[in-house]
């Protein structure tokens, strides 16, 4: 005990220890335990939410890849329909154009034949009028009436 008195420890040490024990008990019960419980709950919620977020991100990535695959399949199917329709339309176009060309050539040949017939008719008509025109020109040049 002499050592404790030499260090300056007296009977108030026990009072201090009792005050410390009461304070420790009070703080542990009413402050630290509720704080630690709230901290654990917060960590559990955070970890749980992180796991949920990771799971949802994985699901979103999986759904996006499925969507991209389906979109590619639909695009290729649409392209196939488009190519088929385009080739059918081009075949129909070529058929219509060929028919129009054939009809135009037929009309053109008929028109050329008609023109040739009219030219021949006009030449025949002019052949009959040549002597009369020649006589009229000669009469005008000679100044007197000439008949051929």
Q: So how many helices?
A: 2
How many strands, which pairing sense, and closed or not: the largest β-sheet?
Answer: none
The separation of the N and C termini measures 180 Å
What characteristic shape results from the CA principal axes? rod-shaped
Report strand %. under 5%
Average predicted local confidence, pLDDT: 90
Low-confidence stretches: none
Q: What order do the SSEs take from the amino end to the carboxyl end, as H and E?
A: HH
Helical content band: over 70%
Structural class: mainly alpha
Count the beta strands. 0
Q: Number of domains in the coordinates?
A: 1
Question: Gyration radius, to the nearest Å?
Answer: 59 Å
Question: What do these coordinates show?
Answer:
With 148 residues, the chain is an all-alpha fold. It has one domain. Helices cover 93% and strands 0% of the residues. It has 2 helices and no strands. The chain is rod-shaped, with a radius of gyration of 59 Å. The model has no long low-confidence stretch (mean pLDDT 90).
Feature tags:
mainly alpha
Q: Summarize this, please?
A:
The chain is mostly helical and 148 residues long. The chain has one domain (2-142). It contains two helices and no strands.
């Amino acid at each position: 005990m002499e050592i404790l008195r030499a260090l300056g420890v007296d009977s108030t040490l026990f009072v201090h220890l009792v005050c410390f024990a009461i304070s420790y008990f009070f703080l542990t019960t009413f402050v630290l335990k509720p704080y630690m419980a709230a901290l654990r709950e917060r960590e559990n919620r955070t970890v749980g939410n992180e796991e949920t977020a990771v799971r949802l991100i994985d699901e979103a990535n999986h759904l996006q890849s499925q969507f991209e695959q389906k979109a590619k399949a639909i695009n290729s199917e649409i392209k196939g329909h488009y190519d088929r329709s385009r080739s059918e339309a081009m075949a129909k176009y070529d058929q219509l154009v060929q028919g129009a060309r054939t009809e135009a050539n037929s009309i053109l040949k008929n028109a050329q034949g008609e023109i040739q017939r009219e030219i021949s008719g006009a030449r025949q008509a002019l052949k009959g009028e040549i002597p009369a025109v020649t006589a009229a020109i000669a009469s005008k040049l000679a100044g007197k009436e000439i008949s051929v």
